[in-house]
Design a protein that fits this description.
- The structure holds two protein chains of two kinds.
- Chain A is an alpha+beta fold.
- Chain A has two domains: 8-83, ACT domain (Alpha-Beta Plaits, 2-Layer Sandwich), CATH 3.30.70.260; 92-163, ACT-like. Chain A, domain 2 (Alpha-Beta Plaits), CATH 3.30.70.1150.
- Chain A has helices at 22-32, 62-73, 105-117, 138-148; strands spanning 8-17, 39-46, 51-60, 78-83, 91-102, 121-126, 129-136, 153-158, 162-165.
- In chain A, strand 6 and strand 7 form a beta hairpin.
- Chain A is elongated.
- Chain A starts with 7 loop residues before the first strand and ends in a 6-residue tail after the last strand.
- Chain B contains 22 helices and 20 strands.
- By secondary structure, chain B is an alpha/beta fold.
- Helix content of chain B is 37%, strand content 17%.
- Chain B folds into three domains: 4-179, 3-Layer(aba) Sandwich (Rossmann fold); 193-360, Rossmann fold, CATH 3.40.50.1220; 377-547, Rossmann fold (3-Layer(aba) Sandwich).
- The chains are: A alpha+beta, B alpha/beta.
- The A-B interface holds A 17, 20-21, 24-25, 28, 32, 63, 66-67, 70-71, 73-79 and B 121-122, 125-126, 129-131, 133, 135, 150, 154-155, 183-185, 308-310, 312-314, 317.
Chain lengths: 171, 586
């Protein structure tokens, strides 16, 4: 059994009606009730049905996570809420980042060499800079950013986590 | 079925009629003029003109709580909408079904800081169950029907429909409510049978059981109250209730322990603390009820019936959660109890009742009325109760000491008769709520038990009562203090009465007369009965200025941060005091 007083990271998938203000409802719920948001992504996933999928990463004790799920579920435009961080629902998490590194000489060569190790793609280049596109778990992206820091890191743009359950079942 | 062509404003009125609305509470303004024009042209809906939009919402709450039907509010954009916010929040906290229609500037002006523009859906998002901005007349019919569905189904609550002025003028198609199915919102009404069975087994094995009931029983409809009475009778278990649930179980029954919580009875709170099985029916373990959470009913198994899944395990961990509507779940409980031929443990129950009777023996609601005066506020409520209990009486209150005294000393035998602001604690609630209740029950006696401070927060609605000839009685327990603030300052802040004295009070008798009503003043215990009778005999609205002992405190009391079994029973020098931690609480 997990420690009930310890905060754990949870990835929640929320299927919502893509209507005006729905994101504000979700965000307002988190801020109004003092819940934590580590990342939040949203995009329409079914244009015909006007449905969007929100992925929220939060850190909370098990009791608070239970509250967050119940509070999200009772919002009127919410179709379904699933906690993708529980043992019985194995899931995959991915995040994408665009990372700008400006340097010349050895540092530039080192940045390019490391990017290959991380399977990052170069999507823009000048004589003194690269923009890398890197995809993976948040930890992998964090590691890559830390490696780039001494090599001329200029800018980071991250999507936040998206997640989906493993296996054949839909949400 | 093909729809009917009409304007947006006509769609609004037609939808209200189709949902059985007979009364709306409102205040006109620029952005709702087309709807007011349609109101002018019809007779099916009565419009009650209030004097402030907050009053409109509280009046609609009073209407809703006393009838079980949704209340309807109509206000204009900007200040009309922002003035409604307190009432909407009040209705959200107490789960009252309301449909609040707000005018909005025309769609092409939205976002331009136009005159009387505000982001109504943005402002009301956290204080409504749901809200809609109607961008086109094509959406209006669906949104109007959805608004009634959402407000009244599941855990009831207020909704806002924000309608831009051009949408009110535009012409569109109206179809009746039968064709609307909500896409996502389908609350669970029936409880899980296996959970109910487990609950019944726990109940049958209980040695020290208690029913802890709340506003959910009232909201579930009169049948839920009947079923609660039936289940209580079958089991013989004691019943207590939150402030919101008073009346669901009759106060004259022997099994009734009185209200629980911060100003609840000694027997109710001690029974909650010592019980071994708690059956919570439509209550939400609010902080006024639980006291110190880590010492709340430490040795009990807890059953929790609630229609809102987010109420489960929110403040208190429960052993058997049952999500569903109270009436449905109680009905199943009774059926399963009967089918199991369950029998309460008679011997244990007799011991439990003996224990409860020793707690009752403390007479925690006792007070001492000196014949020479001044009037004790509890005495005033008791006399009011004795002189009105045989009538069809609805009691509303403001917020503070008078509210708690009313809850303790006025007794309720029926649901929907007690209308008070519980969750939000809104001073100014009582008078407009009384107006709403009186509109719904024209022949009943409606009394707002008030304090001299609270009543001034929505005093202007006296004018509404006069205009519509509503004979509401405003019974002010005038102690010249914001009494509950003064009491806390006495207990927690060294008697430094910072800004809690009601300075520069109006002469309430003259004020009543200025509005066109009747003013009555009582200052001696021996004149109470005659003056109350005079109030009851007066045909129109009355302000009754009852001058009471300014120093009286509201007891019993669980001090902030204390558990149920550490109550202050009166002016006792050895009473438990508020801890430093408790002072942080409200």
């Amino acid at each position: 059994m997990s420690d009930l007083s310890k905060s754990e990271r949870h990835v929640l998938a929320v299927l919502v009606d893509n209507e005006a203000g729905v994101l504000a409802r979700v965000i307002g719920l988190f801020s109004g009730r003092g819940y934590n948001i580590e990342s939040l992504t949203v995009a329409e996933v079914d244009a015909a049905e006007h449905m969007s999928r929100i992925t929220v990463v939060t850190k909370a004790t098990p009791a608070v996570v239970e509250q967050i799920l119940a509070q999200l579920d009772r919002l009127v435009p919410v179709h379904k809420v699933v906690d993708l961080s529980v043992d019985d629902i194995p899931s995959v998490n991915r995040e994408m980042a665009l990372i700008k590194v400006a340097s010349t000489g050895d540092k530039r060569v080192e940045a390019l060499r490391l990017s290959e190790a991380f399977r990052a793609r170069v999507i823009d280049t000048t004589h003194s800079s690269f923009v890398f596109e890197v995809t993976g778990t948040p930890e992998k992206i964090e590691a890559f950013i830390n490696l780039m820091r001494p090599l001329g890191l200029v800018d980071v743009s991250r999507t936040g986590v998206v997640a989906i359950a493993r296996g054949a079942e839909g949400m | 079925m093909s729809g009917q062509e009409m304007t947006g404003a006509q769609i609004v009125i037609r939808a209200l009629l189709d949902h059985g609305v007979d009364t709306i509470f409102g205040y006109p303004g620029g952005a709702v003029l087309p709807i007011y024009d349609e109101i002018f042209k019809q007779e099916g809906i009565k419009h009650i003109l209030v004097r402030h939009e907050q009053g409109a919402v509280h009046a609609a709450e009073g209407y809703a709580r006393s009838t079980g039907k949704p209340g309807v509010v109509l206000v204009t954009s900007g200040p009309g909408a922002t003035n409604a916010v307190t009432g909407l929040t009040d209705a959200l906290m107490d789960s009252i079904p309301l449909i609040c229609l707000t005018g909005q500037v025309p769609t092409h002006l939205i976002g331009s800081d136009a005159f009387q523009e505000c982001d109504t859906v943005g402002i009301t998002r956290p204080c409504t169950k749901h809200n809609w901005l109607v961008n086109s007349v094509d959406e209006l019919t669906r949104v109007m029907h959805e608004s009634f569905y959402v407000a009244t189904n599941g855990r009831p609550g207020p909704v806002v429909v924000d309608i831009p002025k051009d949408v009110q003028f535009a012409s569109g198609t109206y179809e009746g409510p039968a064709n609307v199915v909500h896409k996502t919102y389908r609350p669970q009404i029936k409880g899980d049978a296996s959970a109910i069975t487990r609950a019944v087994e726990l109940m049958a094995g209980a040695k020290k059981p208690i029913f802890y009931t709340g506003g959910g029983v009232i909201n579930s409809g009169p049948n839920a109250s009947l079923l609660l009475r039936q289940l209580a009778e079958m089991t013989g278990y004691p019943v207590t209730s939150t402030l919101m649930g008073l009346g669901a179980y009759p106060s004259h029954e022997d099994q009734w322990l009185g209200m629980l919580g911060m100003h609840g009875t000694y027997e109710a709170n001690n029974a909650m603390h010592d019980c071994d099985v708690m059956i919570c029916v439509g209550a939400r373990f609010d902080d006024r009820v639980t006291g110190r959470l880590d010492a709340f009913s430490p040795n009990s198994k807890k059953i929790h019936i609630d229609i809102d899944p987010s109420s489960i395990n929110k403040n208190v961990h429960v052993d058997v959660p049952i999500i569903g509507d109270c009436a449905h779940v109680l009905e199943d409980m009774i059926r399963i109890w009967k089918s199991k031929v369950a029998q309460p443990d008679k011997e244990a129950l007799a011991d439990w009742w003996r224990q409860i009777d020793t707690w009752r023996g403390r007479k925690s609601l006792a007070f001492k009325q000196d014949e020479s005066g001044p009037i004790k506020p509890q005495q005033a409520i008791q006399r009011l109760y004795e002189l009105t209990k045989d009538r069809e009486t609805y009691i509303t209150t403001e917020v503070g000491q008078h509210q708690m005294w009313a809850a303790q000393h006025y007794h309720f035998d029926e649901p929907n008769r007690w209308l008070t602001s519980g969750g939000l604690g809104t001073m100014g609630y009582g008078l407009p709520a009384a107006i709403g209740a009186q509109i719904a029950h024209p022949d009943a006696l409606v009394i707002d038990i008030a304090g001299e401070a609270s009543i001034q927060m929505c005093m202007q609605e006296m004018s509404t009562a006069i205009q519509f000839m509503l004979p509401v009685k405003i019974f002010i327990l005038n102690n010249e203090y914001m009494g509950m603030v003064r009491q806390w300052q006495e207990l927690l802040h060294g008697g430094r009465y910072s800004h809690s004295y009601s300075e520069a009070l109006p002469d309430f008798v003259k004020l009543a007369e200025a509005y066109g009503g009747t003013g009555i003043r009582a200052s001696k215990p021996e004149e109470l009965d005659a003056k109350i009778t005079e109030m009851l005999d007066a045909p129109g609205p009355v302000i009754f200025d009852c001058l009471v002992d300014p120093a009286e405190n509201c007891y019993p009391m669980i001090p902030s941060g204390a558990p149920h079994n550490e109550m202050i029973l009166g002016e006792d020098p050895n009473a438990p005091t508020v801890t430093e931690e408790g002072k942080m609480l409200v």
